[in-house]
Amino acid sequence: MKRSAKWLGNLGVLVALAAGLVVWIMLPRWGVLAVAVLLGLWLVLTRSGRLALAATRVGIASLPQRWGASSVIIVGIAGVVGVLVAMLAMGEGFAETLNRTGDDDTAIILRGGSQAETNSVISRDQVPLVSSLPGIAQGSDGRPLLSPELSQVISLPSASDGSDVNAQLRGVGPKAWEIRPQVQLVEGRRFEPGLRELIVGDGAHQQFSGLDVGNTITIGNQTWTVVGRFESGDSHESELWADAEIVASTYNRPAYQSITARLAGGGMQALKAAMAADPRLKLDIETTRSYYSKQSEGLTKLIKVLGTVIGAIMAIGAVFGALNTMYAAVAGRAREIATMRAIGFRGLPVVVAVMLETMLLALLGGILGAALAWLVFNGYTVSTLGSNFSQVVFSFRVSPELLWSGLKWALGIGLVGGLFPALRAARLPVTTALRAA
Q1: Which residues are CB-neighbours of 121 under 8 A, at least 6 positions away?
Q2: Which among 400, 401, 383 is positioned nearest to 392, based on CA atoms?
Q3: Range of the domain at 270
Q4: One domain, residues 425 and 313
Q5: Is the pTM value of this prediction over 0.90?
Q6: pLDDT tens digits, residue range 399-415?
């Protein structure tokens, strides 16, 4: 009966610790600041706090004598923070790349109920109907700024190992340049309508081989010439652009997949209302910012979940490393702790002192892991599959928010890893500790 009660009590403590760790990691900055201020006031203004500070200084002074064991905590927690921040930086970089692709001044039109271009079909006779609707901006020639487009997944050799990987060939209309002014040529020229010519994004140029300006490549059993390279600072840099009509004829595509249009002032509501009033246009419309943000949600959530799970698994290992190290430290300092207890240090100052020492080591590990993640991964360029199963080139983004989250994880691990050794130090009988030493 006593054994069961003890087991249930230990289980309750573990559950409470896990819940507390979750709350701590989710705590906003003002909450962490409030906790730090309250702890600082307690340490400075109360007798127990001042005793805890004195005991902490004694423990920190002895760290050089057990630096090897203490480094286990630092390295373990640095690994947790580094991996966690790197994983989350990948998701944040992917989301930021897609979020930069759209804005609130352009709209994308898809077939009603379609979630992406890949499952959308817009017939050719619907294009002139859409172009005559209100809400679409006019170009310098007085014509509507809209581009009927289609997307084709093609296979190209990877620049890294030569293996075939998916790429996105986008067929665009003549107005695509005015609709997307962020697309700027950095080499070569634009493709000529009616010819099998390509311009390639800078990300695609890095990701795939054979895309230098002047090269010819085979796509859809046809020979295409690369005539230009562009930068856009968004996911379009992962694409190859060509004349929509030539892409359609090459792949026998009788319809388009989407229409991208630049909106006039307040044009979204007018365009949406006009489309809804025409029964021939069973189409959906949203801003490109909203569309590309939705495209990134799934993968971003997956990366965040995987990063958190992997970080949690590694955190468990780091907690056990901290437990072993601090238990050994408490055992090695048994006489020192017993002496402090004998001269008037109560249990609470001893507990706080051991935990502060552990959290200091954890903070050092967190800073080390965060610094390594920032130095190694911030701006590191990779590619992954987008919603159309083509490669999207993007860069890791190690933001201050991610570094802050990593430090909170480090302190949380230190809190859990130092608690039980701290309680053991406080409960250590003075006479037993002095005899054992």
Answers
A1: 111, 255, 256, 257
A2: 383
A3: 113-281
A4: yes
A5: no
A6: 888 899 888 888 888 88
